[in-house]
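Q: I'm a student working through a structural biology exercise. My instructor gave each of us a protein and asked us to get a predicted structure, then write a short paragraph describing it. Mine is Radical SAM superfamily enzyme YgiQ (UPF0313 family). I'm not confident about reading structure output yet, so if you can add a plain explanation after the tokens, that would really help. Here is the sequence I was given:
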Amino acid sequence: MTRLLFVIPPYFNAADYIDKVRNAVLPAFTIPYGILSMETYLKANCETAVEMRLVDLNVTLKALVEEGRAEHHEAIFAAELASILEDFKPDIVGVSALFNSSFRYIQSLVATVKAHDDSILTIAGGGLPSAAHAMMLERCPGLDAICKGEGERPLQVLLDAEDRDLVLADHKSWVTREGVARGKVPAHDFIDNLDDIPQLNYGIVDLSHYNNRSIDKRYATEPRREMAIHTSRGCPFLCVFCSNPSLHGRTVRFMSIDRVVEDVRRMRDEFGMTVLMVEDDHFFQDKERAKRLLAALADLGVRLEFPNGVAVYAIDEEVAELFAKAGVSAVALAVESGSDHVLNNIIKKPLKKKLIKPAVEALRKFGVRSHVFIVAGLPGEEDEHRQETLEMLLDNGFDWTHVYLAIPIYGSRLYDICVENGYLESADNDDFVATKTVLKIPGQDPKKLEAYAYETQLRVNFIENYNMRTGRYDVAIPYMKNVCDKYPDHALGHYYLARCYAASGEQELAVSHAATALEIFERDPWWRELAGRHGVDYADCLPLAGGMPASPLALAVGA
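A: Happy to help. First, here is the predicted structure for Radical SAM superfamily enzyme YgiQ (UPF0313 family). I'll explain a few features afterward.
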């Protein structure tokens, strides 16, 4: 019997919550799909008996943040892991990590394992270790080996081996310090047919911890069960900020439509799933297959969302109608920039700006909410390109906009560019988050970039909100309410939510949020300065906040 413990380190920075960074909000956790896939594949295919357990420290850290105990997180992680090690007595501990921000946690976790029992084999996999294997093995002395890319087949070979050291030395996907020293470059060992992976065992996770990733805020307060699926793996593109090829490769492999339908029906019937999160990296690689799959899902009676970003060029009225019939309520669009120069020459993305508006209008025609992802601060991007992006956002009328700062993720072309040109201002992986910039690029002011990202979202989502401008207050309200729930001191959120409620005839709610907005503006000069800079005359809701009669029409007019 081989006992294998999977550990997921947090992928968000505890310091942001200890120091109470203004725009820090706990991320929504996604079901650890890769580990579930490995667990079920190994159970079905290993000759040796295997027992597996999973601990997701994102769940632990979230609880610590909510309890105000995050400053003690490292000691608590060590104690929790030591307790599990004592109880489970694993032969192997595998750490799975996607992003740079998990690096510091990995160092301390493997040290805790080795301090408990130095004979335990410690391995790592996922996007971060796959791309940064040499650096991680150098800087994590307690880490024995790293797996390149997907782990199902390499782990099966390792677990079944009579001599595991030999596998770690010779197998193409495994790399050790000795392998790095002799110049070994690890390679992928993929499962070509995704149907070969048995149905996942969701019993090893508590699904209630993975139920807040939904992007359609109409349903934010309703009971729901979210579950994720990857109907394909891989992406042929090489967008500058993406590290996907280092994990899943550029050849797209698919799950059959029948298998997808079987899995979704099982999620619905056995686990009560009501929202299916389709998390493919490139769902429309085969557009005809995508359309057939949407048609097949239409009869299952579940709501679908695409939170990862879908290819804009693939969306036309036929696809938008198929989305609607399949129960798709919201789609995130992978736009990234409103400048053709940035899209084509910097990101290397096969998208023309002129295709964006028809896609958004097609989605709106069939009642599908559209979100948009923007990445700012890439090398070569100028102020004029960011202005083009702002104008595109205001013109196209997305239901919600997310603006992120470029992060040089290990394994991406952006990381290589930044290293080669000396653009990395901070080598601290804790800083590699989407709300701050770690890049020092000639001609770019990091603080101005951070202000651009935040204030562009304020302007597009609140000050010049498309749905408010077009009288669609019922669409705007759930999004603004969600912001106010997450950030109770968001003055503009309360202010514009009050205006939406007033225009919708919900006077009591309008009064409440107007009063909250005015109280925040009064005590917080940061919000007053922001309002002044963007021409927001928040005093126009004074009569409403005081409970005096106010004109809903006046409140609904833009600032």
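A: Here are two points you could use in your paragraph. The chain is about 45% helix and 15% strand. Residues 430-435, 548-559 have pLDDT under 50 and may be disordered. It's a good idea to check both against the output above yourself.
Q: Great, thank you!
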